[in-house]
C-alpha cells in the first residue's frame, strides 16, 4: 500500500517538476534502486511491494524514448551508461540474491 502511494506521489512530482535531461533522469532512477538495496536491512520486502518496479519501468521508458530520438545505429548516453555501469549484470545479481533468500 505504501509503495503504491510513493509511486503515485513520484509520478505526480515528475509531472509537475521541470523535466531533466534523459541521462540525469535515468541515473536518478538507477540510484533510487541501488539506494534501496544499500539502505534496506536483510528483512527486505518483496520487490513488488517497493517502488523498484516503477523505477525500472521509468528507466525502460527513458531508453525507449532515447532510441526513438536517435539516428539508426547510434547509441545514446543512457544506453552507454547502462552498458558502462553493467546495470543488467547488477540487476541479475540482485534478482538472483533475492530469489535465493526467498527459498531459505
Please explain how this structure is put together.
By secondary structure, the protein is mostly helical. The protein is 72% helix and 0% strand. The chain is built from 5 helices and no strands. α2 packs antiparallel against α3. The protein starts with a helix and ends with a helix.
Secondary-structure content class? mainly alpha
Task: Please tell me the overall pLDDT.
Answer: 83
Estimate the strand proportion.
under 5%
Helical amount: over 70%
Protein name: FHF complex subunit HOOK interacting protein 2
InterPro entries: FHIP (IPR019384)
Organism: Cyprinus carpio carpio
Give me the secondary-structure topology:
Elements: H1 2-16, H2 22-39, H3 52-69, H4 77-84, H5 87-102
Keywords for this entry:
globular, FHIP, FHF complex subunit HOOK interacting protein 2, 104 residues, mainly alpha
Give a quick summary of the entry.
By secondary structure, this protein is mostly helical.
Amino acid at each position: 500500500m505504501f509503495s503504491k502511494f510513493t509511486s503515485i506521489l513520484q509520478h505526480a512530482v515528475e509531472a509537475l517538476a521541470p523535466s531533466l535531461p534523459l541521462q540525469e533522469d535515468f541515473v536518478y532512477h538507477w540510484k533510487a534502486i541501488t539506494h534501496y538495496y544499500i539502505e534496506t536491512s536483510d528483512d527486505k520486502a518483496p520487490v513488488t511491494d517497493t517502488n523498484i518496479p516503477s523505477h525500472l519501468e521509468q528507466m525502460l521508458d527513458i531508453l525507449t524514448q532515447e532510441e526513438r530520438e536517435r539516428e539508426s545505429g547510434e547509441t545514446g548516453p543512457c544506453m552507454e551508461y547502462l552498458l558502462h555501469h553493467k546495470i543488467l549484470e547488477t540487476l541479475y545479481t540482485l534478482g538472483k540474491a533475492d530469489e535465493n533468500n526467498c527459498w531459505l
